[in-house]
Write a structure and sequence with these properties.
With about 200 residues, the chain is mainly α. About 75% of the residues lie in helices and about 0% in strands. The chain has helices spanning about 1-35, 50-70, 80-100, 105-110, 115-125, 135-150, 160-190, 200-204. The radius of gyration is 19 Å and the shape is globular.
């Protein structure tokens, strides 16, 4: 009996991690297809904010269904959720705007592979987090591995515009804001005995 309980934790972790990686890989593939599509008249997709509205709406729907199933979380800090949610939407929108304005997908992937750096900085400044040397080394190893994989892919022939690079930098800054505010949000919520669900982050 105890053996099955011991296996339950690692199994859940494996399923969760596999689901996250699978979903993000598929998401990246679809996003690349959208921005590489060229119509018969030679035009390409530029409506990045429209794409973001659809994505945000899907998040709200799934989050709402999850809360209806599991129950609403009472007394959550709505204002902090609003800042976190707006920052997250902006980070994704800036990534789409970077791709829509000439940034090649391999360069965007390479830039976003360093996402954990601004997230850690944001958590340190805004969330009051502390990290061990081991955690810093783990982040460096993950970023380095992702960068090597990204650089090994076929290079894009398209030029990377200054505007596209600016948008991807803004996206990384907003990633840091999201990380910091979510860390602070969880800390403030724990002080009043509230534990936000993943569906709360999706809905709000």
């Amino acid at each position: 009996m105890s053996t099955s309980k011991d296996l339950a934790g690692p199994l859940k972790l494996l399923i969760g991690a596999g689901g996250i990686y699978g979903a993000f890989l598929y998401y990246g593939s679809l996003q690349e297809d959208v921005f590489r599509f060229v119509g018969s008249d030679g035009t390409s997709f530029k409506q990045a904010w429209f794409l973001q509205v659809l994505e945000a709406f899907a998040n709200v729907v799934v989050g709402g269904l999850g809360l209806l199933t599991t129950g609403m979380t009472r007394n959550i800090p709505i204002k902090m959720f609003a800042v976190s949610g707006a920052s997250q939407v902006s980070a994704k929108a800036f990534t789409s705007l970077a791709l829509a304005n000439g940034l090649s997908f391999p360069v965007a992937t390479l830039a976003k592979s360093g996402k954990m750096v601004p997230v850690m900085v944001g958590s340190l400044i805004l969330g009051g987090a502390t990290y061990t040397v081991r955690e810093y080394l783990q982040v460096a190893a993950i970023i380095g591995g992702t960068a090597i994989v990204s650089m090994g892919k076929k290079k894009s022939s398209s030029e990377n515009s200054l505007l596209g690079i600016t948008f991807i930098m803004l996206s990384l800054i907003m990633d840091g804001v999201v990380g910091g505010f979510q860390k602070k949000l969880k800390s403030e919520a724990s002080k009043i005995g509230v534990k936000p669900k993943p569906y709360d982050f999706m809905f709000w």
